[in-house]
Amino acid sequence: MVERIGVREFRQNLAKYIDAAAPVAVMRHGQTVGYFVPAHQEPVKAELETLKQAAAKLDALLAEQGISEDELLQEFRQLR
Predict the structure, then answer these.
(1) Cα separation of 78 and 34, whole Å?
(2) Which of 7, 29, 48, 68 is the most exposed place for a label (fewest CB within 10 A)?
(3) Is the pLDDT of residue 34 over 80?
(4) Together in a domain, 54 and 72
(5) 6, 29 in Cβ contact below 8 A?
(6) What whole-number distance in Å separates Cα of residue 69 and Cα of residue 59?
(7) Shortest CA distance to 6 belongs to which of 22, 30, 23?
(8) 28 plus 50 within the same structural domain
(9) Across 20-79, where does the E strand assignment appear?
(10) Sign for the pseudo-dihedral over CA of 16, 18, 20, 37
């Protein structure tokens, strides 16, 4: 469910809503006058860190099994 907020609260806390991931409905006198949907152009730092950790784990597993990235890719394409 979309959070509903008044125009005044929206203006006062705009930075908070820009940083948020969820859209909000902006209300005036009990009526919805618009929706704000934050558009994040860059991945969040936590997401990037998680991806880096996953890549490091994959590299370690491949090295442990003696499999190259090219071999993994080739097998993936064959099974697709």
Answers:
(1) 49
(2) 29
(3) yes
(4) yes
(5) no
(6) 9
(7) 30
(8) no
(9) 24-28, 31-36
(10) positive
